[in-house]
Amino acid sequence: MALLTSPFFGIFLSLAVYLCGQWLFKKSHGLFLFQPLFVAMVLGILILVLLANLLHQDVAKFYTQAYKPGGDLIFWFLNPATIAFAIPLYKRNDVIKKYWKEIMAGLLVGTTLSLFAIVFISKLMGLNQSGIASMLPQAATTAIALPISNAIGGNSAITAMACILNAVIIYALGDWLVRFFHLNSDPIGTGLGLGTSGHTIGSAYALKLGSVQGSMAAIAVVVIGVVVDIVVPVVSKFLF
């Protein structure tokens, strides 16, 4: 029990399930269902629920006492990892300087419209105030979305799941979406689309396509994070 109450348990569990996801992803030759982040989320939840039941403890209490101390240490690294997106931005700043008006306008309009769409669909599905607050920040990457979710009365666990599912879906459908919208000849549009919808995983995929796509995806993650950080709290005050 001493191990379960130390930060080492949360750190070890996080690393173990992620490495398991990487192994499955490699063995399945890149099957999207075995995307490491998605596998780590699902497998981690299952292990925590199983351990809590075996020890006859409440799952939420077990998560807080056993996993959260180490999990918070892992989460801390999300912030510098997000800041690292400045590297591809710097490498292709020539493209950003040339098209900065189009890029900023597209991201601002797209993000604002997506927030209204999230609210509309959430209400259509009958979500309560906490549910809507949990879904609103999902337009941003996880490191930015979780603190916003907590600040406006949402459930950060639901927000994290929404962000990860978005990324996994975009990873799975990335090639098809690029072909469907005829973005093969438009690296700027491809990068912005992948970064906007797929966050960090979408940006990693964009980097595989090229340096321009990667830099555009990076700026999408950064700009949308700033927009969501400013707009979502304001929108939530009018909604709730």
From TrEMBL:
What are the UniProt keywords, alphabetically?
Answer: Hydrolase, Membrane, Transmembrane, Transmembrane helix
Q: Does the keyword GTP-binding apply?
A: no
Instruction: Give the primary localization class.
Output: membrane
Instruction: Note whether Lyase occurs among the keywords.
Output: no
Give the UniProt subcellular location, in the record's own words: Membrane
> What is the annotated signal peptide range for this record?
none
PANTHER family for this protein: PLASTIDAL GLYCOLATE_GLYCERATE TRANSLOCATOR 1, CHLOROPLASTIC, PUTATIVE SEROTONIN TRANSPORTER
The UniProt GO MF terms for this protein read:
hydrolase activity
Any Pfam family hit: LrgB
According to UniProt, the name of this protein is: Effector of murein hydrolase
Q: Where are the transmembrane segments?
A: 6-25, 32-53, 73-91, 103-125, 156-174, 215-235
Q: How does it sit in the membrane?
A: Multi-pass membrane protein
Its source organism is Liquorilactobacillus oeni DSM 19972
State a GO cellular component annotated for this protein: membrane
